[in-house]
Amino acid sequence: MDIPPPGNGFVLSRRSLFRLLGAAGGTLALGAVARHSEASQESSAMPSFTGPGVNPYWNSVGPYVSEPQKTPLLLLTDRGVQLETPRSYFQTAFTPNRAFYVRWHLDGIPNAVDLKSWRLHVEGNVAQPNSYSLAELIRKFPAESIAAVNQCSGNSRSSLEPRVPGGQWGNGAMGNARWTGVRLRELLNAAAPKTGSLQIQFQGLESGAGPEGYGSHFFLKSLDLGDPVLDDCIVAYAMNGEPLPMLNGFPVRLVVPGYFATYWMKCLTWVRVLDKTDDNFWMKTAYRIPDTPRGNTTPGDVKAGTVKMIPINRMPVRSFLISPDGDAKIPAGMPVQVRGIAFSGYGGMAKVDVSADGLKTWQPARLGEDFGRYSFRTWEFTWTPKAPGRYTLAARASDSAGNTQPDQPVWNPGGYLWNRIERQDYFVGGAE
Amino acid sequence: MKRYFALRLGGSLAIVLAAGLLFAQVKRGNYAPATFGQLQQPSPATPTDDSVYQVSAYQLYPPELAEGEGRAETESFCSLCHSTRYITMQPPLPASAWETEVNKMRKTLGAPISDASAALIIKYLQAHYTPDTRKQ
Question: For chain A, which residues make up each domain, given as ranges?
Fold first, then answer.
């Protein structure tokens, strides 16, 4: 169906936009500029990869697959299992367990756990080693709940330019849940770390085929004993009021509010107090960021070896335009509810501003219910486009610590910390 | 306790059984071949009231790697630890990046790949997965 283009503008179809960005691995054809906007879905199959340019889609491009206890999610890799949450699940402050993204590092992950023999061990440089069954964790300690965003360190990695190797996530490697469990402090206090203790190491039921002593054998993460985030940590046995899906860390997972998900150990089974700094691969080599503003650097500086790297930690402030998603044309003069989410690892949301004129002027969005400083905060903005044409809307969040999303991109070799202002294009048509 | 991991050899899938010793209370690494488009719906849990919490096998979707010399070695060695979707998921990467990745797997992560096999794998990845060479 051929609809005349609005005004005199030729409109780029999503497919041709994709080609122009150099993503389809095909030739860049001038003739790919379409004369009409496509009604809704792609008219041809999705590409199997994006690049060498940036990923032009909101999500990654993988096909939908259904893994146990999960609704169809976008496949990144099948072994280890990495699944991305589609954009439409972020219309609410809490992400359903079934739609919550999945990211494992190694392929030996549990298909079954026997709670008769499973125990959470608190051990290492402590006066009183302990182990707890799930029933003991539930009965012996007060239940604490916190709403907190779990975001993969590499969320939006496919936005970086130049592209970097790694999981090629779109924006859906994140989710927000109400986590319920035991305060980590309670467990640590009961174990009484000895003097000289430096870090706490976390290990779950994940292992790989690699040789012992290598990162391909065990996935291990550690936090400093003096890190104030330990006061906020919870060993969670419930996620949105339900048992955790196996792929999200049944029976318990560590919740580190404000920190990237790499520390949120799934299937947590060993809490180990160390009297030295953890130098395993997952701390010493992987998940490290430049010790620079925003963790920003350049390929040249990395090559020159002049960049000091530190372990990744808190999540920078971000916001997302969720709906409408640009799939449908909007009639001129119609008030449209633009909805999104925002969050920060540095504290609650102070404000979200929306620009409807390509980042020239900004107006405040209405913030939704406040579920706590580490939760998604929904926002809403009523936008009434007056005339047909192409519009770029953008959302910019500011957190209560005074951080505001910048419009400059970020680059670092791990593909971490992306938090540039997000944009969404809309096409407005005539209504009379 | 049994542990399964899939080893893709020369394009054919072999399920290899390995014994793990550490986690007696856990069954791990059960994967099974699956078909795109066959999406499953939730089904009732097995009606037992014991303390075992179990899910079905995780799904394998081995990608078709580009035809060419070194493909069999690439599939065999990379699949020791992970799916070859780790290759096809990447954007086209510069030739030097593929060399860095293979060396990282060998030296930093301990993959048992000989110099000769590594050279073959690097050459294969560079021949099919760079901005100049990637077609699929």
Answer: 120-286, 318-429
Instruction: Please give the domain boundaries of chain B with CATH numbers for all domains.
Output: 71-128 (1.10.760.10)
Angle, helices B115-128/B95-103, rounded to nearest 10 degrees: 150
Q: How far apart are CA B91 and CA B129, in angstroms?
A: 8
The whole-angstrom separation of Cα B90 and Cα B85 is 8
Provide the β-strand partners of residue A175.
Answer: A150
Q: Do A216 and B88 touch (CB under 8 A)?
A: no
CB A351 within 8 A of CB A398: yes
* B58 with A81: Cβ contact below 8 A: yes
A120-286 CATH choice from 3.90.420.10, 2.60.40.10, 3.40.50.1950, 3.30.70.20: 3.90.420.10
C-alpha–C-alpha distance, residues A144 and A210, integer Å: 37
Whether the Cβ atoms of residue A393 and residue A356 lie closer than 8 Å to each other: yes
Contact: B60, A78; criterion CB under 8 Å: yes
The answer to whether A117 contacts B25, with C-beta atoms less than 8 Å apart, is: yes
Identity at A400, one-letter amino acid code: S
CATH class of A318-429: mainly beta
- Interval A6-53: pLDDT, tens: 333 333 444 444 443 444 333 333 334 444 445 555 556 789 999 999
Considering only alpha carbons, which residue of chain A is nearest residue B131?
A52
ipTM for this prediction = 0.89
pTM for the full predicted model: 0.90
Report how far apart, in Å, the C-alpha atoms of A96 and of each of A69, A244, A248 are: 11, 11, 12
- Taking contacts as CB-CB distances below 8 angstroms, the residues of chain B near A165 are 90, 93, 97, 101
